[in-house]
Design brief:
Pathway: Amino-acid degradation. The chain is α/β, with parallel strands linked by helices. 38% of the residues lie in helices and 20% in strands. The chain is built from 16 helices and 15 strands. It has helices spanning 52-61, 95-102, 107-112, 117-126, 129-145, 161-177, 200-217, 235-247, 263-269, 283-290, 300-306, 313-318, 339-350, 354-361, 363-368, 393-398, and strands at 5-15, 33-42, 45-51, 74-79, 81-83, 148-154, 181-189, 223-227, 251-256, 274-277, 295-298, 323-325, 385-388, 407-410, 413-414. Helix 5 crosses helix 6 (161-177), helix 6 (161-177) runs parallel beside helix 7 (200-217) and helix 7 runs parallel beside helix 8 (235-247). The radius of gyration is 22 Å and the shape is globular.
Length: 415
């Protein structure tokens, strides 16, 4: 066979996600499946997709003599998952927080007892860059095994110029050591650090003036995030911060409407790629997001970890919005990190079709990261895909994430 090309097949069911829209509802019947299919890969991208007969004909034009072997057929192939919101670069554990929360303690009580985000900041600051790199790699490898081939990773547990740089350099180093693509995001605006003597405005000004230029110079991140919430940063305070970020060419994403509704409006005003959380979003916020190009990102892991409402996913889709589902894997509110299981739980409670779920884990999730080269198994897309030993794609969701992929391909290579 020509070394440039590789044929994957035959495949009993190839789920391409081709021709589906970024926004709006998707019915069960819209799942785009090719029966008795195959793919031709060219390097790390997809060259052709179709039925076995189509691929045999295409292979012939390339000078490749391919005879499909039915005994070696792959059962079900779907695109690799994209997790657009994680906090997997951290040190330490917040198991005590979880126990206290389930025992009825409030967020404030936990924080006063030494828990909360500041606990993770303290432990992450104590860790070396090398340790943070190793921690991140460990979590990425688990995500890869579970079918996640592109992973956004936030900073935000450093909360000073020096410590945020340490985290983002660790993320960059981890990216060199794994097959999955890691997409770094600067979340220096997570909370105002306890040891910063100035006010919220002064902190964000320092970060934008001293950290942003280094992010560009070292190519550490092209995405800026902020937690807009009463105990974090107000919409008013964040405005000049985001204005500076946009001026410097950064993409914007927002921790929005987790406990109160104000962040989604900021996301729309700044044409953010995504507004994430949205557990507190009401009818006004749903309509606002649906009538924008902002991808609404549900984080069911946080709802499960905190015992709070889910993102109104059904309403967002019915209003014509774009829905993405991410894990929010973090040491505090969402320590589980199992993306498919969380998506299936959200689907059950919000009555989402399997097509909507898979879209929210693939090409719609990629849109939240401004990546238009993955999430679908079509020509010229990145060859990230998963092989499941099941009779139908619907079996994957039926088992609510318990079934993991048998084989994971990233950039056309079996990992």
């Amino acid at each position: 066979m020509n070394n440039t090309y590789k044929i994957i097949g035959p495949i009993h069911q190839l789920v391409t996600m081709a021709d589906l829209p970024i926004k709006g509802t998707l019915s069960h019947e819209q799942m785009p499946v090719i029966e008795n299919a195959a793919m031709i890969l060219k390097g790390d991208t997809i060259y052709a997709v179709g039925t076995v007969e189509d691929i045999q004909a295409e292979a012939k034009t390339l000078g490749i003599d391919w005879t499909p072997n039915a005994e070696e057929a792959l059962p079900v192939v779907i695109p690799g998952f994209v997790d657009s919101h994680t906090h997997i670069c951290f040190a330490g554990s917040r198991a005590r927080d979880y126990a206290m929360r389930n025992a009825g303690k409030s967020y404030l009580e936990i924080a006063k007892a030494g828990g909360g985000i500041w606990d993770t900041v303290t432990q992450t600051r104590k860790a070396s860059e090398k340790d943070l790199t190793a921690n991140t790699i460990m979590r990425v490898l688990r995500h890869q095994e579970e079918g996640v081939t592109t992973i956004e990773v936030k900073s935000g547990y450093g909360l000073s110029v020096e410590e945020e740089l340490k985290m983002l350099r660790a993320i960059k180093d981890a990216n060199q050591a794994v097959a999955a693509d890691l997409i770094p995001t600067c979340l220096a605006a997570h909370i105002k650090p306890k040891d910063f003597e100035g006010d919220f405005d002064a902190y964000l000004q320092e970060i934008s003036e001293k950290l942003f230029p280094v992010l560009k110079a070292e190519n550490l991140a092209n995405r800026i995030d902020a937690f807009i919430e009463e105990e974090a940063f107000s919409a008013k305070v964040v405005k000049p911060y985001f204005e500076k970020a946009k001026e410097m060419g950064f993409d914007i994403t927002v921790h929005a409407d987790q406990f109160s509704a104000s962040g989604s409006a900021v996301a729309v005003d700044f044409d953010a790629l995504s507004a994430d959380h949205l557990e507190a979003s009401g009818e006004k916020e749903v309509a606002l997001l649906a009538n924008s190009n902002v991808v609404a990102t549900a984080l069911p892991g946080a709802s499960m970890g905190l015992g709070c409402d889910f993102t109104p996913a059904r309403k967002i889709l019915d209003a014509g919005g774009a829905l993405n589902i991410a894990s929010d894997w973090n040491p505090g509110s969402a320590p589980m990190g199992d993306l498919m299981m969380q998506a299936c739980v959200l689907g059950t409670f919000e009555k989402l079709s399997n097509t909507e779920l898979l879209a929210a884990l693939t090409f719609r999730a990629a849109a939240a990261l401004n990546l238009n080269d993955r999430g679908r198994l079509t020509k010229d897309m990145k060859a990230d895909f998963l092989v499941y030993d099941v009779g139908s794609v619907h079996e994957i969701f039926y088992h609510q994430g318990k079934i993991k992929p048998d084989v994971v391909y990233i950039s056309g290579e079996k990992i």
